[in-house]
């Protein structure tokens, strides 16, 4: 299915600013969640904080597929103030706090009422950005917290840019840290590039020579 053309373009003219390209619109996220997850790899996540642009390239994400997915926050149709954003419109940030110490950033997908999302697990950090090899590190490096929960992914605060990066091989593995979730435990819903910045290395059995 072709991706709808975004209507906003970010132009990079200064050294150290994010790569130039169109900003992904809500149409990009209003699709099959696995397709969105795969297509997000290589895109550039941009965060503006007090006039400073922080950014990194998406290299690891996970798909969470709603009420049927035993690992999703919306498993079984669960709905609460914490996960309400998942039930909302696509193209919004779903940010939650976990283990009493980490924030995690997700992108809401699918039409309103279908509670699915893509978790951002790792970035290749841009200039001046700290380590991004894990969901908590991503949020720490880009100063992302619950204040951004429910925010539309549009400039200036938080958005995703497509700078037409050359294609790289995509690897699929089971999701990380979800525990025993029955048939969902080993489903290959983690998508990543081979990168030094991953939260966990790709299994040797999957690596290309």
From the spread of the alpha carbons, the general shape counts as globular
CATH class call:
Alpha Beta
For this entry, what is the oligomeric state of its chains?
single chain
Task: Estimate the mean pLDDT confidence.
Answer: 90
Low-confidence stretches: 1-15
Order of helices and strands: EEHHEEEEEHEEE
In short:
This protein has helices at 26-29, 33-40, 135-141; strands at 8-10, 21-23, 44-49, 52-64, 93-98, 102-109, 116-125, 158-161, 171-173, 190-192. It has 209 residues and is mainly beta. It has a single domain, classed as 3-methyladenine DNA Glycosylase, Chain A, CATH 3.10.300.
Structure explained in plain terms:
By secondary structure, the chain is mostly beta strands. It has one domain (8-204): 3-methyladenine DNA Glycosylase, Chain A (Roll), CATH 3.10.300.10. It is 9% helix and 28% strand. It has three helices and ten strands, in the order E-E-H-H-E-E-E-E-E-H-E-E-E. It is globular and about 45 Å long.
Strand and helix layout:
Layout: E1 8-10, E2 21-23, H1 26-29, H2 33-40, E3 44-49, E4 52-64, E5 93-98, E6 102-109, E7 116-125, H3 135-141, E8 158-161, E9 171-173, E10 190-192
Antiparallel strand pairs: 1-2, 3-4, 3-8, 4-7, 4-10, 5-6, 6-7, 9-10
């Amino acid at each position: 299915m072709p991706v709808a053309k975004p209507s906003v373009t970010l132009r990079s003219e200064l050294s150290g600013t994010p790569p130039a390209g169109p900003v992904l619109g809500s149409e990009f996220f209003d699709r099959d969640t696995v397709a969105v997850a795969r297509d997000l790899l290589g895109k550039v996540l941009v965060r503006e904080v007090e006039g400073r642009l922080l950014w990194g390239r998406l290299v690891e994400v996970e798909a969470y597929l709603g009420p049927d997915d035993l690992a999703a926050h919306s498993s079984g149709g669960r709905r609460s103030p914490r996960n309400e954003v998942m039930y909302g419109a696509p193209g919004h940030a779903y940010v939650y706090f976990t283990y009493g110490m980490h924030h995690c950033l997700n992108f809401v997908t699918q039409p309103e009422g279908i509670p699915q999302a893509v978790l951002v697990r790792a970035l290749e950090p841009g200039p001046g950005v700290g380590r991004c090899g894990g969901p908590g590190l991503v949020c720490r490096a880009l100063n992302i917290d619950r204040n951004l929960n429910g925010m539309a992914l549009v400039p200036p605060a938080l958005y995703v840019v497509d700078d037409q990066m050359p294609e790289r091989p995509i690897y699929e593995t089971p999701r990380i840290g979800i525990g025993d979730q029955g048939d969902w435990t080993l489903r290959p819903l983690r998508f990543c590039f081979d990168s030094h910045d991953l939260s966990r290395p790709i299994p040797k059995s999957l690596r290309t020579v």
